[in-house]
Write a structure and sequence with these properties.
The chain has 401 residues and is of the alpha+beta class. It contains 13 helices and 19 strands. Strands 8, 9, 10, 11, 12 and 13 form a six-stranded antiparallel beta sheet that branches. The chain has a four-stranded antiparallel beta sheet with strand order 1-7-2-4, covered by helices on one side. α12 (368-376) links the parallel β18 (359-365) and β19.
Amino acid sequence: MNIHEFQAKQLLKQYGVAVPAGDPCKTVEEAKAASEKLFGAGHKLAVIKSQIHAGGRGKGTFKHGFQGGVKLAKSVAEAVTVAENMLGKTLVTKQTGPEGRLVQTILVAAAEDIQKEFYIAVLLDRANSRPLIMASTEGGVDIEEVADKTPEKIVKEWVDPAVGLQPFQTRKIASALGLKGDLFNQACKLIAGVYRTWWECDASMVEINPLCICLGPDGKQKLIAVDAKIGLDDNALYRHADIQAMRDLAEESPLEVEASKFSLNYIKLDGSIACLVNGAGLAMSTMDIIQHFGGSPANFLDVGGGASKDQVAAAFRIILSDSSVKGILVNIFGGIMDCNVIATGIVEAVRETGLKLPLVVRLEGNNVAAGKKTLAESGLTLITGDSMADAANKVVQAVGR
């Protein structure tokens, strides 16, 4: 699950990470009040940031012509004008695609006096089965670009999960970033806070880009997380009711939201052949083989290893809600899964929805004979596949006719 920048900063602040003063706003009136509070506290600039689950906001363009989803304001009046041009408007960035995203919340925050930018992130290194802290002196740019052009500028520190992050490791990272004196001490505290956020929130990634040395109103240098991004592990959300409440359904595909209600792993794609598969690996292979035969998958849909007939029926309803779908391929390998459960679910779903599209079914494995018998005796018009290749070829041909 992804959360907004303002929510990520709220979590980081709970663990002692310094973030700019600011408030999320859903109305122009709230934006005016937030900017008045900032300027009243002595800040010279405010930054207004569109809150959508997509990058490239600063270089984006609103559909009504307003340029930039991140803007600076020198006064309350300017902040209000920016808010009026952002709230309720659609922002298009490289990551949103041409349809863009509707901005329903903005973050009105203090624009810090930035002197130097860094990068820091915590994620799971699956190759080493350990948490990994990555840091770089090259903040404010894509870390992929740094890794490609100047990999030596990325510092990596692995954490033993049995003992946790040790003080010497935070000092090692702070030293590698070239920080000294009070900034060194601030960095050690901040790094520990970022790691605790990742660990205790069951995050898949915590990324601060940029982490900045800022000059405060008192003339002192401070380390502040100017921007932040956090991705949460969906499988651990049951332990975090407060974080689960941060989920913004408006930022997710309606079909993906519906699928989550039935514990289905669904991702909408751009093709015309829908896939219903059990197991993520088999689903990926199914999409590949559809493309191999000249087709294009309309979705990734993993019903899991123990799907019920109700889940299968729900999967069909979700698939058929996508108007771009021209055919359906069901590819099931029964290990834990009972093929007859899938077959029963298919029959009920087809009858319930009145399916008219080409349907190709390939069943193999546990109780496959009973599953094939259920399909054969159903009276449904469907095409059977003897193998993955056969099924994929048949559905591509059926859709092409």
